[in-house]
Fold this protein.
Amino acid sequence: MINIARLAARAVILAGMQCALSACTALPSVDSPQEYLDPNTAATISVVGRPLVFAHARPNLAAHMRDYVTLAAAAVNRSGKTEYVVIAYFWTTLDAHGQEGAARTESNSASDTLILAADDRRIEMPLQGHSAHAAGIGIPVHAPPVRSAIPNVYRTDLATLRFIAAARHLAVLRSADDPDSGYEIWEDRRAALGQLVGLLNGAK
């Protein structure tokens, strides 16, 4: 004789397992973009899940010494008008006094234009300012692990972000005339940028 109670219990267990598996697959990955209403600016922010990080070796200062550039793309929607920005942090793990956590160095201080080498293009992004809040972002976005990193906000557009995400080679240049002095990719998060572009392209 079929045990109805046992079959019913088994069905409940299987249904619970299926729901649990569905919930697991629905969880966002680390590359998934973040979207939120900024409580400080009332703007809707869409930001890349993980930023791109570039590095430039400085063996003249210390062994394994590097300067870094962190680039985080974001979209700021204020009253239906969307602006696209790249927030850059120029930083290092060692300053001139030997203290860890220095935010900037003389050799990699931010300029009025961020130059990004993407395949055969040199993409120049004009500096909008040194305040992410002025750009509509009141909460720090992917700040590096240093004490006083200053955000540098550069204007861009969705087409440029799409090109960067699909580029095979990326580098940040300190000078357009000296490509050998630039920063090479250190932490490649183009997949995360691609997911942000996909989200923004759908919302456009």
Observations:
- The first strand starts at residue 34 and ends at 37.
